[in-house]
Fold each of these.
Amino acid sequence: MAYSSGFHPHPRISYAGAAPTGSESEAEYVEIGLAQETSPQAVHEMLDESLPPGLDIIDVVPSAGGALHDRLEASHWRIRLPGTSPDAVRSATKQLLAADEVLVERMTKKGLRSFDCRAAIVTLRVAEITASGDECAILEVVLRHGTPSVRPDDVLAGLREVSGLEVGSAALFARLAQGPLNEQAGTVGDPLDPDRDAV
């Protein structure tokens, strides 16, 4: 790994668009500066060896240049809501999507912030309902990245704001993808495609 210059060298490593604490993710990205040219396969093997079980390296590609962070425009999330009525979630979702603006509050590093969670929502739908004895609504949401970043719990706060929907603390968040946003289709692409195309 390459290190920065100066009195206090730091490893040249950057985590782009890290998921919020406590959420599951299948789409986390890291950029690592290397001291010498190394094959992607060798880097893949070294990283896999050093990580604990459950943290899997999916792909390693050489950078074609530019900041990876700039390609991470949106995230696709799945939100599981155990014990929550699917009909109530459907109704709340319609109300949220019909609103021009929905203000929510969250404590950030800069203190309590109020921001519009509706503006970040590209798509929001009830994707699936599981019938395993307990009610469980599953939401699929694509969120546009911004400052401050709107997270899945902010979407739930927005649903509560417009409809009074209470989902409790059992909500489970999983990021399925993050990358460039296709605004028209409401989908998230692969941010590593430009690097693969350059190889």
Note: The longest strand covers residues 121-131.
Amino acid sequence: MMLGRKQLLIDGEWRDATGGQTMPVVNPATEDVIAEVAAAGSADVDAAVRAARAALSGPWGRLSARERGRLVWKLGERLMDRIDEVARLETLHNGKPIMESRHIELPMAAECLQYFAGWADKLHGETIPVKGKALVYTQREPLGVVAAIVPWNFPLLLAVWKVAPALATGNTVILKPASQTPLTALALGELAIEAGFPPGVLSIVTGSGATVGQALVDHPGIDKVAFTGDTSTGRGIMRSAADTLKHLTLELGGKSPNIVFPDADLDAAVRGATVGIFYGKGEVCAAGSRLLVDRAIKDQFLAKVAARTKKMVPGDPLDPKTRLGAIASKGQLERVLGYIEGARREGATLVAGGQRTDIGTGKGYFLQPTVFADVTPAMTIAREEIFGPVLAAIEFADVDEAIARANDSMYGLAAGVWTQDIKKAHYVASRLQAGTVWVNTYNVYDTAAPFGGYKQSGFGREMGRHALEYYTQVKTVWVDLG
């Protein structure tokens, strides 16, 4: 199925890339090219920035906060109106099950838009008592032009996590989706036009990270970069953004521990361990890729995890019954297989999966969900982010060793704790170096709850009222009353 040729959205108009280049979009479940999208260059980025800056001083900048909020709310409504169509696109270019796209992630995206729409007219300043005869007050103002650079694992949801608070607080946005998964970002642009956003408020610029992403980070007309992706790219963005002192929020990699104590509800913990690593094919920044299990229950628990894993079979992502889809690209599949082979060489014990597979068509980037036992903290699969359905099980002897091993990582995005001892749960949660800690659950999110990382998992927060701080700046006004 070919979806045709897609253009850039700049200044409210659809246009080809200045140089006329395009790039293919591949369905990872079939390996077929399903669309051609414009491959933008630096001239296109510059045009988008000019349009975004003009919109700040034009109709968008003159809207009241409440009117702005209504438009963002309407964008959420438009998304829900066309959710079946957009969810299909999400599955076609990413390979995730349609169940995840249609019933989990896109409804979350619409909810996020409407949550932040409600904040638009609720950002208050304050008056400050000072010495002398003066009235001193503060007000929150938008940063200006925001570049939102998002990855391929949750193409629309992670875009909305940035677009929603940025627009609600009065910024303009240039969205750069991953080159592998641009279709739903372009659909969001269509919905924004339908909702009535003025030209230049939301531009969609597709292309490679090396060209488009770098041009956005380097451009002096960009005031803030909001990036989700791998840690090495985040470091590069920090270095480049230093030249123009851009505001940054970085949501980067993870190697999140999922800790199971002997007093846990083990059946629930087994479900949590498998959901924690296999939801989204493991292509999740916060995936519980390190399973830390108390030595006393290790064998029993891993037997249950392996049995459950072996029942999980990849299927056609467009089938509503499928729960495990295709790895997002050929390159990512090869990367994950490389980690699996490396784990075998380093002495980890394969207890489930470990092989490429297919769904009867002989095509597609499908991989069996994989579990390794006897993993030591020094092994590569215990230290590096794989970004695939590969679970590394590590044993511990007691609570303190569990905490130490959980924190023995350059990452600090998320963690899970499984115990029925409430004191232990709070104690461990307080000691874990992670931006999110789930207790007796895993991989749950809400637009009202902030999300972000510690250490080299990045900084800044997305979702919740805390996100608003990263899209606004505070102005202090002094009025002499003497």
Note: The chain is about 40% helix and 20% strand.
Amino acid sequence: MSDLPVKELGNRTPLEAAHKPAIDKLCSLGRCGLLQTVPPDMPPGSEVANMAVLGYNVKQVYQGRGVLEAASMGVVLRANDLAMRCNLICLENEKIKNHSAGHISSEEAAELIKTLKSELDNEKVTFYNGVSYRHLLVIKDGKNDIICTPPHDVPGTPFRKVLVKARNGHSETAELLNDLIFKSQEILSLHPVNLKRKSLGKDPANSIWPWSPGNKPEMKTLKELYGISSAVISAVDLLYGIGFYAGMKAIKVPGSTGLYDTNYEGKAKAALDALREVDLVYLHIEASDEAGHEGDPFLKTKTIEYLDQRVVKYIMDETAKMEEKVSIAILPDHPTPCLLRTHTHDPVPFIIYHPGEKSDEVHVYSEEEAKKGYYGLIKGQEFMLNLLKR
């Protein structure tokens, strides 16, 4: 939900423009700061950022997004498997129109992946169906000697300019993946699902886009790192993949969409229920990120207001009734500015509230105000260590 000032919002960020009394109240009770979640020489993806929030040394454990989503989907990877995220995207005039095929439904996407599997799966290539536009591609004996471009980083770019490239010289894996992209376009362009979407004025899912390749990672669990039990609640496979390797209990809430229409109340209630069983609950809500990718500052502002009234207020009210004191933290994993429609490396504003602890002088939660907070600018494990008071 972190952003840059937007002209349409009176040169304010969505955080500054949003009416968010519950979050601002928590801000006035707690302490603020900025957290550098993504090192400057690493891609500012959600996988890197969320692992960093949890206190992992991302340079040691990062193996791409695909392996995490594979874990969340129950796909067992062998040591020589190369796993990667595989989006269904929309191309228009040979340019990437969007990274999500107009947020295609899971039901429609399942039909498309089923066809791709029947046409393109073999002893080396396997497609796995995921959620909405987010799917998985595994290459047996694939070499991670390639450079892949995340599709959400390059809307409006001619797709041929950002095809998979060899890291050094020649790469058979790069050739294989680009061949799959072109074959997918032939298969998907005339698929009944896409013909129907076009007739309804919707974006067709007319190409695959593989990115974020990696091999099976080596990660310690949060129990091993901090001695705590934990759970994760999200709408996206990536977070459950991180949770798998972190040893977190996976809690899935019906109606979780990853968009502005997600089941906010259901996720908030699930978080409270889980908190009675585990030490830490990681509640991830994707809506503001997707609004940023869409370049819609008004929708992004609305998602922050939904978060405030339908999640944060409830959690604050209910945890205040508990006998055991509950600490609460709020932060984005990374910025997704509406003007850029992609992630950036900028540090994110955070709040940490420990009941009974003296607050700082920040009373409004925003990118600028958090700079004045008690914690200043921190990075690495510092956020988790401060949250857990270690």
Note: The first strand starts at residue 31 and ends at 36.
